Amino acid sequence: MAKQDTVLRAHAPWCRNCPLRALPAFADFDEAELRFMERFKVEHRLVLTGAELILEGTKQPQFATLFSGWALRYRKLADGRRHNLAVLLPGDLIGLDSVVCDASQVSVQAVTDLTYCAFDVRGTAGLRAVEARIAHRILSRAVDDLRRQERRSVTAAVGSARERLAAFFIDLHSRLLRLRLADEASFSFPLTQQHVADHLGINVVHVNRIMRGLREAGMLHMEDHTIVIDDRPAIELAARIHIDTVAAVPLI
Amino acid sequence: MAKQDTVLRAHAPWCRNCPLRALPAFADFDEAELRFMERFKVEHRLVLTGAELILEGTKQPQFATLFSGWALRYRKLADGRRHNLAVLLPGDLIGLDSVVCDASQVSVQAVTDLTYCAFDVRGTAGLRAVEARIAHRILSRAVDDLRRQERRSVTAAVGSARERLAAFFIDLHSRLLRLRLADEASFSFPLTQQHVADHLGINVVHVNRIMRGLREAGMLHMEDHTIVIDDRPAIELAARIHIDTVAAVPLI
DNA sequence: CGTTCTGTTGAGACGCATCAATACATGTGG
DNA sequence: CCACATGTATTGATGCGTCTCAACAGAACG
Question: Under a CB-based contact definition with an 8 Å cutoff, are residues B249 and B144 in contact?
Answer without folding.
Answer: yes
